[in-house]
Amino acid sequence: xxxIIGDTHGHYDELxxxxxxxxxxxxxxxxxxxxxxxxxxxxxxxxDAGRQNLKVISLVQNMMASGAAKAVMxxxxxxxxxxxMEDPDRPGEFMRRHSADNAHQHSExxxxxxxxxxxxxxxxxxxxxxxxxxxxxxxHVVHACWDGDAIAGLKTIGAINADGTITPQGxxxxxxxxxxxxxxxxxxxxxxxxxxxxGLEFTDAYGRKRTKGRIKWWNENPQTYREAYSIPxxxxxxxxxxxxxxPHSEATRIRDGLRSVALVAFGHYWMHGxxxxxxxxxxxxxxxxxxxxxxxxxxRYDREKTFTAANFYIAPKP
Length: 318
Known about the structure:
The protein is of the alpha/beta class.
């Protein structure tokens, strides 16, 4: 059975406490955890924000190498590869710009690998071995959004392999805005956005006017715009009856595709609250904002047919 673990973002102490609390045994000599009957399943985003990035990565690597864990890639992990990857068509440039904003986002991780290019390279090489999705029977795991069409599309264009790992060409195409690969990787690893119905706009946390909303794709039948998109409560239309932007909207397409998927687990969305709960009988988010003062959470999956709040586990304070 799987213990599905949320975004760790360099918070090793919380991860250590979480695994101990779930009955995993720690071997200090090998820096490894194991469980006699269960396997850890990480939803990605191992780095950035916290100051124990290398300890988290080393532990996850060891657990995977010993068969004690599996993992999918998160958007921060994906971004780290592109940040380190030189653009083959633009000498001296990188696939992810070394802007002040991007450097700040990666600063804690970059600080830990500073002065050790071999270690930096080994970590980004390891990230490249992670798949962008995982499926086992009814259970489907992805970092930000399960979209079967996006997965199939990436395979068709040669951007991912049959096992979900990204191909060399996929890494290049995925780093170029405007390509099909860029759009599809954005959906899986960062979550899909779409234009709202004509005439609707809101002001985001940075004071910018927005006419696109990030889709709450896991809500199978949203009744209001607040249920359909991640929009601030201040949006005047938040509680208005939801109308898809078009009969063929991105949100409608993804939700229709989920009807053939039994259970979906993901991270990414910085959930808040005192007690984690499923988003529906068939969808859970295990990112409960440990990097923003929240909790490191896991879901203890036992092949049940619907998710239940009782199977969430919260890391005790280290």
